[in-house]
Amino acid sequence: MAFDIAVKRVYEAPGKDDGQRVLVDRIWPRGVAKKDAALALWLKEIAPSDELRKWFGHEPARWAEFQQRYRGELDGNEKAVAQLRALLGDGKVTLLYGAHDEAHNNAVALAGYLRAHA
User: Could you say which of 18, 50, 98, 105 would form a disulfide bridge with 29 (CB–CB 3.0 to 4.6 Å)?
Assistant: First the structure.
């Protein structure tokens, strides 16, 4: 079963085709009002640990290692992963993140993990 997953910066306006919007950052994004985020869920429990997030620091050179370490954290975080999978069972989910880097962030890594474990 293939999941319908999109990834988008939380600062972008909600779209009609977003499906359920889920913020997957541990920290609330600066300057975003909760009502404007149009979230179905803020699943901060699925975000990388503070230690991993700080180690990565959005350094592209650390991307492959970050993904590997984050997958390990996700493997041990069955409750949060199951919660997200349940939403995906209901249709499209857009994973939201606050980072500036659109290619190297936890939402992109999480989407890859979910697609690989569909």
Answer: 98
